[in-house]
Amino acid sequence: MDDRLAARSRPASRFQAVPGCFGLLRWRAALYVHLIGARVRAQLQYRLSFALDLAGTCFITFVDFLAIVVLFAHLPRLAGWSLPEVAFFYAMATFSFGLTDLIVGHLDEFPRSIRTGAFDLFLVRPVGSLFLVVSSDLALRRIGKMIQATVILLYALGRLHITWTPVRVAMLITMIPTGVAIYSGVWIIAMTVTFWAVEAREVSNSFTYGGSFLASYPINIFGGWTRRLLAFVIPMAFVSYFPGLVVLGRPDPLGAPVFLQYATPVVAVALLLLAMQMWSIGVRHYRSTGS
Amino acid sequence: MRRSGHAVIKVDELRKTFTRTRATGRLRRERVAVEAVDGVSFTVQAGEMVGYIGPNGAGKSTTIKMLTGILVPSSGLVRVAGLEPAKQRTDLARHIGVVFGQRRQLWWDLPLRDSFDLLRYMYRVPPERFRHNLDRLIDLLDLGPCLDVAVRQLSLGQLMRGEVAAALLHDPEVVFLDEPTIGLDVVSKGRLLEFLQSINKESGVTVLLTTHDIADVERLCERMLIIDHGRVIYDGGVEEVREAFGGERMLIVDLETAAPPLAIEGTRVERVEGARQWLRFRRSEVSAARVVAEVAAQAPVVDLSIEEPEIEEIVRRIYLEGLPGNHATDNSRVL
Description:
- The structure holds two protein chains of two kinds.
- Chain A is an all-alpha fold.
- Chain A has helices at residues 2-8, 21-45, 47-74, 83-104, 110-116, 129-134, 143-160, 166-196, 201-215, 224-233, 241-248, 259-262, 264-284; strands at 77-78, 81-82.
- Chain A has one domain.
- A two-stranded antiparallel ribbon of chain A has the order 1-2.
- Chain A is globular and about 60 Å long.
- Helix content of chain B is 31%, strand content 31%.
- Chain B is of the alpha/beta class.
- The longest helix of chain B has 18 residues, at 186-203.
């Protein structure tokens, strides 16, 4: 008990006072900006390699885009959806995925820090390890995907003639952050597997990249089994499909309950909380390395 | 000067068991439990500087990782600065500084100055405090010329000094250093050790240091913990290890004239060279005073000196042979 008292009697002025909950959030945001700013400055130090990277992703993105155009040229309708509708689902899912990739994509490198034990250092900081891992990088070159998605979205919206109601506008705007939250949640959960099985990277990737592929299309084009998986297990249907139905004003061709179309924010928050919980369980199982 | 005299680290019956799988046949595997840390207990008072040593795989790093909250103990009690590391990891981080000789906490691509600045944000060090600490660290560690150099371009010596500075910016009460001198040349090492001593003496920072180099401990610490096979086998003064584990002392005596080897109980003559003789004896068997008196009684003495065994030598022997009467064995068991 004696040492506990001693710990409390330390001079308080050694740290800035911790303000309330909102202040804490502000501090986190500021810290994120600082850490990411440092990473971006570091990336820009290697100007040539950054330029090459960006050019590379832009090229790949362009090829992706061509593939879609070719696909659409041969398929005027896909499982009852018109071309601009499919483009809309695709664009919304791809934009969210691109943004997620930008923010948490470097989690792919995370298994390596587990294997080498470099993760140790994330655990001796006064901020949560998940926050530190997420703010350890920002791969600017991944912006290419978001540019592509924006172009497709503009095309889709131009052709769809949507009657904009406040609900639809709100839905469209929230689809991006909720989509990012769902993808990030899946990504984080997939990565926590590496706390137990270091070499599980391929499994993780099949959930993240595979999931993004599946989320890009209206789910009724898939068979029943895949569909149920998407709706309720890896909740990719909530990224683009369910909220997209509201924006497009289309009834669900599968006749799923209407509340599902508005459930995306709940799913997103729940999934993120679950991911954070899984992460902290994973951290408790972290074994570090020998030395 | 900080208040000293309270327990800042308290460890009681601490254990960490790892399970490993081991191939026993072409396809068969068995799970084996390895006690990396097997019931370690010790207390460190505020302001102490303790050397934590042991051979590779003895459990040093595992202990440090449990003290800093990186690993969750399998059982036992750990308190650092009154906190439970595994549960209050992020709170504890403000009270401790950590340096791993084999890991880099500085931002590799950024100038050293930027790393310090990021740490200031992360630890929320008040600006005046930060400036004060930084000025002092730059001065003591001679970091001035490195501040605007990207970390990846620093020499190993500069890098380690930078790492140590990074661990001290937020005024930790306790600093854990795991092999901080690894790979450093004599000059860089000397400088770093000198610095550690000064922050311990002047600011009262508690220091727990693991190292493979006993000379570091001998130079810096008054107290030494030796761990082997997951257990503390010695906890006490650095000098006292000689007494605890004997080791043979050597009396070198110059007689007036050459003489036949002296016959004194409890000693044996190692060498005779003209009038000079080397006598080995064990502290536990006969006292130095007694040996000197006996020698003087047998022949006129011109000069004499006593050599203590090297601590490094004693520790090496402990690593190799274990303690007398303590049969440490492979501490793994099949599950």
